[in-house]
Amino acid sequence: MIFTTYWFLAFAVLVVAGYWLVPRAAWRLWFLGLACVVFHAHFAGPAGMAPIIVLMIVTYLAGLSRDRRACLAVMALCVGALCFYKYTLFLVNAALEPWSPALAGSLRSAAKSVMPGAPPLGVSFFAFEFVHYLFEVRSGGAPIRNPLKFVLFAIFFPSLVAGPIKRYTQFLPSLEEGCVRFRLDNLGEGFLRIATGFAKKVIIADNLTLYVDATQPHFASLGPFGRWLVVLALSGRILMDFSGYSDIAIGFARLLGVTLPENFNWPYLARNLQDFWQRWHISLSFWIRDYVYIPLGGSRHGLARRVLNGLIAFGLCGLWHGPAWHFVLWGLYHGLGLTVCGSYARVPVVGPLLRKGFVREPLAGLALTQLFACTGWLLFFYPLPEAVQMARLLFGL
Question: pTM for the full model?
Answer without folding.
Answer: 0.91
